[in-house]
Amino acid sequence: MATVGYEYSAEEPLNREPPVEDLVSSFFTESDGYDRNHGPIPHIDASEHIVRVDGAVENILELSVDQLHKDFAQHEVKAGVTVSDGQNAHVAFACFQTPCQEDSWYGGSIELERAMREDADVVLALEMNGNPLSPNHGYPVRVVAPGIAGARSVKWLDRITVQLHESANFYQQHDYKVLPPEAVDGESAKQYWHTVPAIQDMPVNSVVAVPKSGDTVAVSPDGTIPVKGYALPSGENGPVTKVEVSSDEGKTWNEADLISHPEDRENTKWAWTLWRAAVKVEPGHPRSVWSRAADKSGNVQPSCPQWNLRGVVYNGYGEAKDLTVV
Ligand SMILES: Nc1nc2c(c(=O)[nH]1)N[C@H]1C(S)=C(S)[C@@H](COP(=O)(O)O)O[C@H]1N2
Ligand SMILES: [Mo]
Question: Could you tell me the pTM of the whole model?
Fold first, then answer.
């Protein structure tokens, strides 16, 4: 470990997101305004940073960032995983650089099978869009586990452990889980945390970005208003295959145009999809616009999933409500 300084505190970590209309303005997000942290941001000296691979492996590895750069593709195989099929093994990722709000370290785990499968594209990332990772996104090395909740994509990675149980970290055991509706506060949640699985794959989702709830929108001569948003497939079931938009609270739906990767139109499995539509809306107030997405496996957004205490994996219809159409 070689931390040369911290930013922010464990009590008030950096958490922010850009305005949603900026998000949908281009396929590649230009503003670097999305950050999610449970603790301070460490500034690490990459030349001294080591990622240790241990647990149920034949060879414990101590990998420098330089080695990861030069020949990462070979390393997982080198380590020699020693668990057999059907053992329900996990790969735990850990960062010990800074304390977090609810634990003294940060960690998460995914299934070993998923981590090892080539088409699951779980990677140790050293770069983002061709540049070294910035400190806030995990410099010098982080996990990126596509399709899986961001909480498992551990930043400032110190250790990878192959083990027969999930990560013991707070954020795997007592957060990022869908609790039953009987859990209504911290106290009543206590008896349920160990009964429900940790969130892994995220569900299909879509968001209406333009207009925003409460906006006043001018109707075009053809009686339509422009609507823009984004959509995500569930887990490994990408790409998004359809987004529909309704301006009559779900009675009728119109198919939106999907905007995928500008250069690489084939390689869309993990990517989000931007979409736009022109929908007929009668002038007046209040008006609303809803969106719902479907993915390659036929998963469709529900209108409103069951409430849960942490409000996680919410994927009800996208919505802009309380619109004034003039
Ligand atoms: N070490 C560490 N890794 C972490 C976190 C953290 O607080 N500490 N937050 C997790 C969560 S909850 C998410 S959503 C993603 C966010 O990554 P980003 O800030 O680069 O978008 O990082 C994950 N990895
Ligand atoms: Mo997260």
Answer: 0.95
Neighbours of 23 (CB within 10 A): 20
Q: How remote is the CA of residue 151 from the centroid of ligand 2, in Å?
A: 4
> 9 φ, ψ to 5°?
-120, 165
**From the CA of 153, which ligand is nearest?**
1
Question: What's the whole-number mean pLDDT along residues 19-42?
Answer: 90
153 Cα: distance to centroid of ligand 2 (angstroms): 9
Distance (Å, whole) CA 116 – CA 128: 22
Residue nearest to atom 24 of ligand 1 (CA): 154
Ligand 1 neighbours by CB, cut-off 6 Å: 34-39, 95, 100, 106, 137, 150-151, 153-156
- Looking at the chain, the domain(s) classified CATH 2.60.40.650 span 205-325
The CATH architecture annotation of domain 205-325 reads: Sandwich (2.60)
Tens-place pLDDT, residues 98-125: 999 999 999 999 999 999 998 999 999 9
